[in-house]
Amino acid sequence: MTDPRNAETMSCEEFQSLLPELISTGEEVDRHPHVDKCELCKALIDDLNRIAQDARNRRGGEDWA
User: Fold this and answer.
1) N or C: less crowded end of the chain, CB within 10 Å?
2) Using only C-alpha atoms, what is the Rg of the chain?
3) Does residue 37 contact residue 8 with C-beta atoms inside 8 Å?
4) Helices and strands, counts by H and E, the chain
5) pLDDT of residue 51
6) What CA–CA distance (Å, rounded) separates 19 from 10?
7) Which residues in the chain show pLDDT less than 70?
8) How far is CA 18 from the centre of its chain?
9) CA distances in angstroms from 15 to 7, 33, 46, 55, 56, listed in the order given
């Protein structure tokens, strides 16, 4: 296993296990160094962003508390 603190060498599994924490802290995960190098995780982040946007649209643009 690589060092999970090294974003450029982490595996997809390591990155994806960190996603809940990254998202909850407000980090822009689409700019994460792993996503820059990984098409699979970039596609996952794109899908999650689309789902979040669809949810906001359905609620009239309101932020969820």
Assistant:
1) C
2) 13
3) yes
4) 3, 0
5) 93
6) 13
7) 1-5, 7, 61-65
8) 9
9) 8, 10, 15, 24, 25
Report the chain's terminal Cα–Cα distance, integer Å: 36
Give me the pLDDT at residue 59, please.
76
Q: What is the pLDDT, as a whole number, of residue 62?
A: 58
4 SS3 class: coil
This prediction's pTM: 0.74
**Measured at the alpha carbon of residue 42, what is the angle toward residues 36 and 47, in degrees to the nearest 5?**
155
pLDDT digits (tens, 9 = 90+) for 40-58: 999 999 999 999 899 989 8
Residue 37 CA: distances (Å) to CA of 9, 27, 32: 9, 17, 9
